[in-house]
Amino acid sequence: MQRVNLRQRVYLQLRSAIEQGTLGAGTRLPPSREHAQALGVARNTVLWALERLRVEGFVQARVGDGTYVAQGLAALAPPSARSGPRAALIGEAWLSQRGRLMADTALRWRPPLQAAAPFRIGAPEIASFPFALWDRLARSIAPQARHATAQYLDPAGLPALREAIAHWLLVSRGLSCTAEQVLVTSGSQQAIDLIGRLLLDVGDEVMVEDPGYPGIRACLLGHGAQVRPVAVDGEGLDIADGAARWPAARLVVVTPTHQFPLGLRMSLTRRLALIDWARQHGGWIVEDDYDGEFQFGTHRIAALASLPHAERVLYVGTFSKTLHPGLRLGFIVLPPGLAPAFAAAKALADRHSPGEQQAVLARFISEGHLLRHLRRMRELYPQRQALLIEALARASGGALRLAASEQGMHLMHEVSGRRSDVALSARAREAGVFLAPLSGYAIESGRRGWLFGYAGYDSAALRDAARRVGPLFARG
Fold this sequence. Notes:
Layout (H helix, E strand, L loop, with lengths): L1 H18 L12 H8 L3 H14 L2 E4 L3 E4 L27 H7 L1 H4 L22 H9 L3 H7 L9 H15 L8 E4 L1 H13 L5 E6 L3 H9 L3 E8 L2 E2 L1 H7 L5 E4 L13 H14 L2 E5 L24 E6 H4 L7 E4 L5 H12 L4 H12 L2 H27 L14 E6 L5 H10 L5 E2 L10 E6 L5 H17 L1
Parallel strand pairs: 4-5, 4-7, 7-8, 8-9
Antiparallel strand pairs: 1-2, 3-10, 5-6, 9-10, 11-13, 12-13
Helix pairs in contact: 1-3, 2-3, 4-10, 8-15, 9-10, 9-14, 16-18
């Protein structure tokens, strides 16, 4: 293995010298024996590297005369080594107009790459996930079924999983749909991306909640849509105000069960007004039910898409919160007429989601494991929420008292006036705690405050983070 690595190293050094123009076209290379002595390697090592370069077309061997760098390799040289105008460095200038829009999303939304730590939002409890059970389900798949899921599959998803999701939604979210309406996606972010591709043209207006989720806005802007903010009050997004301000809007994205990030529940009046707007204007409603399964009260509100006349509602769900984000599986419930087009677009994007993961998830749902897991989380999360409230109140000397919530995975603390939430968040980061400022989710809204994620962190982690940031609020 060491000998092979040495050959590879010599080859790469020679190839790099040719590509960078250090060894220009037509340059005669040293005799292999001398080259080997200069490098302190065996001659066969150099001969192997030269033969590979010859096969790839980088060098030419002339019988009785030696080895030369091949002609016609000027395009390999860096821009500064070429004649004529200096070439632009590879970057956004090389992208298409839509490509630049996509690249610019990094300015608007940077999903975190580091491991989740308090109080980062959106992180579910991972340690309690039944990985051993999941592995047993995977191992128990019959060889014939495993061979089938190893083939190219229906881009809309495995029939068994789509059937399981449709049944689950009826029981859990009051949403009646057929398996044919369900499209399996790589999380909710791909669902939003497909919606933007198929339902919007460049320049179309889309209404979004303000404040709201920046990942949705970034995706829509990347498709060339005009994102229009609509204020959120105690009843949720005000569609009457939105329709008056943005009469040309074709689509609205909402989080009605648990508004992100404010944690409000959209009133029935507003839900019905949304549906009426869509019917009258030929618009579309995207219902992002990102954590709708985590409602802790006696009665759970059904999905917006379950209401009468909701034919123009696209329901987006994800298993990133109910199970874990590494699964990378979500879904859209589509109006029947849209299902074939969305399946075709999914095939163009990534052909289909991983087959074996879908097969295991189908069994996980149909055998009742999802229900049992969610029951455990619905018991655990309120306990962690109560602990968070108590720990922050104690650590801040009573200055920070969060209001409890009967749903969700985070709490929001809002402040009035012009106090900067960004400055305190920066001090929290210096203390080793992630504390998202509410202003970071706003477009026009002047609302300020902080978000406290608690679902994915144990008691010790929550108490430690509270001790770190509590004094910041006490001083504030």
